[in-house]
Amino acid sequence: MSNVQSDALVFFGAxxxxxxxxxxxxxQAMVRRGHLNVLVIGVAKSGWNLEQFKARARDSxxxxxxxxxxxxxxxxSLLRYVDxxxxxxxxxxxxxxxxxxxxxxxxxxxxxxxxxxxxVDQLGKSSCAxxxxxxxxxxxxxDLSSAQALNRTLLRTFNERAxxxxxxxxxxxxxxxxxxxxxxxxxxxxIWNRHHIDNVQVTMAEDFGVQGRGAFYEETGAIRDVVxxxxxxxxxxxTMEPPVATDSESVRDEKVKVLKxxxxxxxxxxxxxxxxxxxxxxGVAPESQVETFVALRxxxxxxxxxxVPFYVRAGKALPVTCTExxxxxxxxxxxxxxxDMPPNYYRFRISPDVAIALGARxxxxxxxxxxxxxxxxxxHHPTAAEMDAYERLLGDAMKGDPTQFARxxxxxxxWRIVGPVLGSATPVHEYEPGTWGxxxxxxxxxxxxxxxxEMKEADHEG
Length: 462
Fold this sequence. Notes:
By secondary structure, the protein is an alpha/beta fold. The chain is 32% helix and 21% strand. It contains 13 helices and 16 strands. It has helices at 17-32, 50-64, 69-78, 89-99, 116-125, 144-155, 173-184, 214-218, 221-239, 248-260, 389-399, 408-418, 442-445, and strands spanning 8-12, 39-44, 79-83, 105-109, 133-137, 163-166, 197-205, 270-275, 293-298, 310-315, 322-329, 345-351, 354-363, 371-380, 428-431, 460-461. It has a ten-stranded mixed β-sheet with strand order 15-8-9-10-7-11-12-13-14-16, with helices on one face. Helix 1 packs across helix 3. The N and C termini lie far apart (48 Å). Mean pLDDT is 91; it is low at 457-462.
């Protein structure tokens, strides 16, 4: 059933925060584009009825997506609601009744991972899983062993081809563009290797704190929250070999091969930090050792990348909100270059705007053969007309296209890499909000120096 279109969408956790902020706006957008014309059944335990559920949906799109009356009216006509406890078989009997003639529903679990097993088992016992797909929201476990246990739970009821592990970051246009830009341009691929690249830096910075979600962050921390999933996904898109075809498994095979070439992180290559004031947040332990910032150095032991250091950092309460990749090229021979002039680079900005830039040198006007640094820049500012990540990924799952979803072996390889530095394996250093983390992170990168993203674009040409 890999290419069969889903004929119903069921989402558990339908009255929760994720549904309110992301899912209803995505569903309205799908209807507006003509991509959704099947029953949408919400399941939750809130004591609600269908009219209250529709009112929640309307309030959601008004606040987070912008009400499009015709599209919302159509969405409202597709909505159904089942209220009940996930442990009660009667809830799933009611769901089976609402599904009616649907033979290939897609079940989206927008619920805490602790409930995955209960819901999946009930789907199997109630026959709701027959011919169905399941869409699982991250996190996929807390470490390698829990991820393997979660996969065993899912595989009791669904086969791997029917499991869609959703990481919204993979649905972002800019993340997909990394892959396209690499393999669609003849000028890039010949230099994309250890012979021409000096180092690679990936930075995911946020200028805000935990925003009242202290209890959640105490259970995750920066490594679990964004490194194990988002940033390793970016790294895989940057470094994977060209796939033999563009089908989902060929692409995902190459991503897994990259992760297999990365050794487990050494604690000596990781620096964790915590911004001053984090421990005063509601839900945070007074002596918390959870990191709100992490910087790490890793290697990819492959023919293409042997010897190239990769630096990754992510943090909250930093100077800007920006996700950016900086690829520093090796310095050319000193013929026309000055020793203190920075080498060439590629820069890929993923958010909040999208940019692809090349740092180059041009001759300065005058008789002397001296140059100056310029940046050749192409930018794109996302518009409201573009697909949101959840709209894209829910649509792909319902079409049966798993390309932008994490496969079981990928998830387990990612946990293997970060496993040795989870928890309190390394000390936590305090840093001031509004700075680029603690100075200890500078020792990882030594003479290379961190590239700090700026919100104001540099001097550029073109």
